[in-house]
Amino acid sequence: MTMLTDRYADEREAIDTELRSAVERLPAEASRVAAYHFGWTDAAGRPATGGSGKAVRPLLTLLAAKAVSGGWRSAVPAAVAVELVHNFSLVHDDIIDRDTMRRHRPTVWKVFGTTDAILLGDAMHALAFELLAGTGGDRAAKAIGQLASTVRSLIEGQLADTRFEERDRIGLAECTAMSEAKTASLMGCATTLGALYAGGTSSQIAALRDFGLRLGLAFQHIDDLLGIWGDPDATGKSVYSDLRNRKKSLPVVAALASDRPEAAELAGLYARPGPLDEIELRRAAELVEACGGRSAGEVAAATLTASASAALVDAGLREEAVAELNELAMSTVGRTR
Length: 337
Description:
The chain has 337 residues and is mainly alpha-helical. The model has no long low-confidence stretch (mean pLDDT 94). A hairpin with a 2-residue loop joins strand 1 and strand 2. It has 16 helices and 2 strands. It has helices at 9-23, 28-37, 56-69, 76-97, 108-112, 114-133, 137-164, 172-197, 202-229, 232-235, 241-244, 250-256, 262-271, 278-290, 293-310, 319-333, and strands at 101-102, 105-106. Helix 2 packs across helix 6, helix 3 (56-69) runs antiparallel to helix 4 and helix 4 (76-97) runs parallel beside helix 7 (137-164).
């Protein structure tokens, strides 16, 4: 499917322009690696046409601002700061997970080495705060505090995710809390910053933050499904990538917690030492589905998307922008990448 974000040409152009300008402020070597990561160049530095991602998070920032005031340009630096933090986490996550493909091309660490990838992530993290600081005033101080708190949540979620790989059993509540920290927190931050930079009231900021958090959790549930059953040609990742890494994602956790006899076979595959071969990976995917893991993820995502839309009711927001946010939320449930 065509991503809904592709329709917002003006907003995406503003995000891209600001992002490129920000990346040019990095040290030359970090800027060169960042240009590859965002798909602007190939590994040799030649111009390329690779995509830089779906831009869901920065677009949420701009649409949240639009929902408050009708305009969005004042929130562009905040949107780019959110995108930089998101990409800092992606570059580091790829190292942690040893993922070799992202956005249909080799990951940064695979091309430039682990050291350059770590340093690029650090540089993008610092640059995000520099952008917010440059906006000045009380807004900047509040935004920096919000983003800093979100980065701590991201790290907490990543730590939980890696620890889950060492444990045989994970509760559904634990899995949800990990996803809230690792993914939902940044989407909640994105909508919070948009409302803040548009001059939103405390109730408007709270409503948009709630929307972002719920949508972020739904987004993670869909990502978990794509991590098992996604088409590599669409996702840009290897087939069965989450199963290959023994991820305790919601579909897997739900399947392992079921009372189906197939759950024991799935647990045995996950506990097996060494990498799983293609036949075992395919069997693991079949077992997760047979135990209800796939349907659990689909139902959770749909329920959260509906509750995200409900969070915007009676918040005193502009109807046109609320409709756009709701449409973006609905597109999340049906996305294939």
